[in-house]
């Protein structure tokens, strides 16, 4: 009996020893978006897949949760939603209307794709110009960027604003879903100024 137990223990140790290096290689190959904890901030904008685990911080900005956003709302912050617009289904007949609905935090300005990276210089200029209009040129006015949970777009949008000199940038990583857990949302249309400046065709997306 004792001999059998010893054999089983030795077998388990051998199995762990064999799997260990492979597990180490897999973990070592994982990028920031693959790890739910301690995701480091990239040096610049994040150019990888738009959805994935994000850092807990945004240097130069304030990271807020739902309570933090509730407390900020009385100051009238500019709310910038950068959720990507839905794409028209490939198999949908051309003569059939495509009327997607996007719901957002009430009062938010929806600029689909404004958190993408890289953006063309024209789109980046259009984004900063539109935010300047929304803030009345006041770079000390609070601005909140958000999209969906585990979305790099709102992180990038906040990063752009920090780099542009905005001093009260707030990043709300919980996004629309985090807000609607306790609050109503409202139907949002793509911001006309952003759409016109970037040539986006919201009706087809």
Automatic annotation (TrEMBL):
InterPro entries hit by this protein: PQQ_CXXCW (IPR022376), Rhodanese-like_dom (IPR001763), Rhodanese-like_dom_sf (IPR036873)
Residue stretches in coiled coil: none
Highest rank taxon of the organism: Bacteria
This protein's name: Rhodanese domain-containing protein
Taxonomic classification: Bacteria, Pseudomonadati, Pseudomonadota, Alphaproteobacteria, Hyphomicrobiales
Entry-linked SUPFAM superfamilies: Rhodanese/Cell cycle control phosphatase
Signal peptide from the UniProt entry: none
Domain Rhodanese: 73-188
């Amino acid at each position: 009996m004792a001999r059998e137990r010893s054999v089983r223990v030795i077998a388990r140790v051998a199995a762990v020893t064999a799997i260990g290096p492979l597990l180490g290689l897999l973990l070592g190959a994982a990028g920031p978006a693959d790890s739910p904890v301690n995701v480091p901030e990239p040096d610049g904008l994040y150019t990888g897949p738009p959805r994935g685990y994000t850092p807990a911080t945004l240097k130069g900005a304030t990271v807020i949760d739902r309570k933090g956003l509730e407390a900020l709302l009385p100051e009238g912050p500019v709310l910038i939603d950068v959720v990507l617009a839905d794409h028209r289904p490939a198999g949908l007949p051309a003569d059939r209307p495509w009327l997607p609905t996007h719901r957002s935090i009430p009062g938010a300005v929806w600029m689909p794709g404004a958190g993408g990276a890289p953006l063309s210089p024209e789109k980046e200029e259009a984004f900063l110009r539109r935010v300047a209009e929304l803030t009345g040129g006041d770079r000390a006015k609070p601005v909140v960027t958000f999209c969906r949970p585990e979305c790099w777009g709102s992180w990038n949008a906040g990063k752009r604003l920090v780099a542009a000199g905005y001093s009260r940038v707030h990043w709300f990583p919980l996004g629309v879903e985090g807000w609607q857990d306790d609050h109503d949302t409202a139907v949002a249309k793509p911001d006309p100024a952003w759409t016109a400046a970037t040539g986006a065709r919201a009706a087809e997306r």
